[in-house]
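so the lab meeting is tmrw and i was supposed to have these ready like two days ago... anyway. pasting both below. for each one the top line is the aa sequence and the line under it is the structure tokens. i havent really looked at them closely yet so no promises
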Amino acid sequence: MISKTLIITLLLFLSVTLGAQDTIQLHKDGAKFVLYGIIIDGDTLLLSSIDEVFIFPRRKFDSRRDYRRYRRLIRNVKKAYPYAKLAKEKLDEIEANLAKIKSEKEQKEYVKQVEKDLKDQYEEELKKLTLTQGRILIKLIDRETGDTSYELVKELRGSLSAFFWQALARLFGSNLKSEFDAEGEDKLIDEIVILIEHGQL
């Protein structure tokens, strides 16, 4: 039913010319679009792929407080998630560049420079995260990179730095060794991230 409605709509608003049997050329405002179709019993049907959609059970809340807590979690994940994605991108870039540098001394200098650049660029933004958003970010970094924040610091800056930052995080009630548990305590965060990734939230 949906595909028939789509074809009728396209026919009403666009001039259609049939090319080869497997393509449909659409013309609108001087632009030409080529879509794929199939001819069955003389009828040309549009073939199109649609974006994947994820459907999770409808949330039921016992109270308005639970609903507000859920909305707050969505807001916090939306705030932290872009930084987790950025961490993944930067880590991939750093690893690719480190592979090209042979000298250990030059590698250390490169990591220090990257750290300085990242600090200059993102420190003020990251300071604005709440403690809850910071904890979520630590979990999401593990989700995106496959390594805890502690492991990443240890790998790039050494055990002493990792120990120092872990101790500092502990003072604020966080843990750089936190792992993302998509099937357990972080299941709701994982659902929210999936919905964000697919433009559903």
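ok protien two:
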Amino acid sequence: MSDKIPNHIGIIIDGNRRWAKQRNLPSLEGHKKGYENVGTISRHAFKRGVKILSIYAFSTENWKRSKEEVSYLMDLLRLMFSKEADKLVKENVRLKVSGSRDKLDQDLLKLIDESQAKTKNGTKATLNICFNYGGHQEIVDAVKKIINNGINAEAVTEDLINSYLYMADIPNPDFIIRTSGEQRLSGFMTWQSVYSEFYFPSKHWPEFSTDDFDLALEEFNQRQRRFGGN
């Protein structure tokens, strides 16, 4: 077993639709299975000692998908925020939702706010759901807030920009996993990932198991991290 556990892991959950297609199932079944796997993997990650797990659940680009698929994904996220919050409270886990609030229905925004408030005292770990999230949009929103606050250009630093990001209170990810074999970030944590280690397993997200997660930790344990100074 690994003896070097990343403090913060980000996961791009890719391959739900391909998993379903391989099994001659509707793509929505893949999303359902993928949703269930978020719970399985997050609990295992926290058991292993990970303190922050960020899940790329819905990107700003995903609005381009069919209305049926988008509607189903919104319903799954409603289920997550309404049903999982009580479990997270019992497990002493804080829920954070990172992303733009644009385009989201009021009932969904209310659920998000209520779930975050309900779990705010969780100290064991943080489950960070990146929802309606895009790395470029995050930076654009931060710049707009800086301008609106009348901050002079001379005062703008990396630390200042970081303080205006959606994830200002979360340290940068040590390790980013993208399932399904695709080797790109697709807008995930554009600002925060500059020194993250990356891992691209071929398994689709619904079949990515706790054993696969442990293999990823073993891979991380073999890495020698460098931050530009050595």
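from a quick look at the 2nd one: Residues 111 and 140 are 25 Å apart (CA to CA). The chain has seven helices and six strands. will dig more after coffe
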